[in-house]
Amino acid sequence: MAKELKELTPRSESYTQWYQDLVIKADLAENSAVRGCMVIKPYGYAIWEKMQRQLDDMFKETGHMNAYFPLFIPKSFLSREADHVEGFAKECAVVTHYRLKANPDGDGVVVDPQAKLEEELIVRPTSETIIWNTYKNWIQSHRDLPILCNQWANVVRWEMRTRLFLRTAEFLWQEGHTAHATKDEAEEEARRMLDVYATFAEEYMAMPVVRGVKSANERFAGAVDTYTIEALMQDGKALQSGTSHFLGQNFAKAFNVTFADKDGNRDYVWATSWGVSTRLMGALIMTHSDDNGLVLPPKLAPFQVVIVPIYRNEEQLAQIDEKAQQIIAALRAKGISVKYDNSDNKKPGWKFAEYELKGVPVRLAMGARDLENNTVEVARRDTLTKETLSLDNIENTVADLLDDIQKNIFRKALNYRQEHTITVDTYEEFKEKIEEGGFILAHWDGTPETEERIKAETKATIRCIPLAGDTTPGVCMVTGKPSVQRVLFARAY
């Protein structure tokens, strides 16, 4: 039974099927009755909640406050900023009527043709337009700036080829939208939030990222510059894991949002927007997990420790229960989240397999002999190793172990990225190496035409122009024209 519970398609056989198996079997999410949409199950949502809580704290530490804006956006708003509407037009879900009525020809309901909206409403694909229409009423002078708002919401982008967490028609995210008096202030904000995302990814998700700026072809629709963090998954593909956009004055001009500066002169407001989504769940799974199931960083695990009693009779269970409660109290006093599974409907072997599959960082198993010896069996999920340890100061032992697991899985992911990041100088070598997966650093002449050619011929895209690293000029691997610096290429999700 335990083997059946854990049976996953090996990554070496089909990485795509392994991912799908794992999301389903680990109780993270499932497909819904609505095509392209997902149900996030309680265990999966518990991970998202921990992400959300930490990010929310980090946003507030940088001066941001949460607000909420409408789900529906008048169609005319999306026409105000040309690049923006072009970027999202093909993904928009449109509401045309506001009422149903009983079907006159039989059972069920039909759309009431008399209830047609005067203006169609777009189900929020992103909120720049509705927010900047609102900011017009909030901003009159420099004293009203900056506005530092974030909202946690759902969005809809009509995707037909979907994959749980990575790409669904509806997904959850946060989107920050800020307004500033100067260009420098807005650019600083965009870079600051990129750093917040990178810090979260590396310190909490244990996922190393490359910080960079997108090429013109890859930037957000309506942005002047898009900053990004890019991560490398275990199959050698890149995953864009967070973006922060310097929007210039584009949306302020589109919605006529101006302010009076200290000298009384009027100017358009400068803007940013930035966001991460439940796609981070996919990143977390694909960065760390293995053929045995999830591997979760302790800082984001729904519970960091599970205690499983091993007993032959009710008397033994009662004794273990008593000891377990003492351990739980000591662990919780250290801020460690614990689950005690003394349910009698599953054998210990099944429980071990289940919690291994679900990626619980530390498992404690306790039997009658452990009670006699004042010991406990400690298993760590990242290395699948176990040892018997004294219960004396177990809370400090486990705290140190969790810290070591967090660092170890980051180190493992970083080593993987370093081993799969190469530098090439010729297009022939590039075309050969891109088939092997991973990040490739290569020179590019900076033109959209060359970028499009590389994408068409190799399916690789420029993930970013790194903000740190080798900035030595060279020549483009494709055209031989001058190149300012190497850029980061990969095939991507």
UniProtKB/TrEMBL annotation:
GO biological process, one term: prolyl-tRNA aminoacylation
Gene Ontology molecular-function annotations: ATP binding; proline-tRNA ligase activity
Origin superkingdom: Bacteria
Pfam families reported in the protein's UniProt record: HGTP_anticodon (PF03129), ProRS-C_1 (PF09180), tRNA-synt_2b (PF00587)
Residue ranges occupied by any Aminoacyl-transfer RNA synthetases class-II family profile domain in the UniProt entry: 30-297
Compartments it resides in: Cytoplasm
GO CC annotation, single: aminoacyl-tRNA synthetase multienzyme complex
Written domain comment of the UniProt record: Consists of three domains: the N-terminal catalytic domain, the anticodon-binding domain and the C-terminal extension.
Family: Belongs to the class-II aminoacyl-tRNA synthetase family. ProS type 3 subfamily.
Subunit record text: Homodimer.
Protein name: Proline--tRNA ligase
Protein's gene: proS
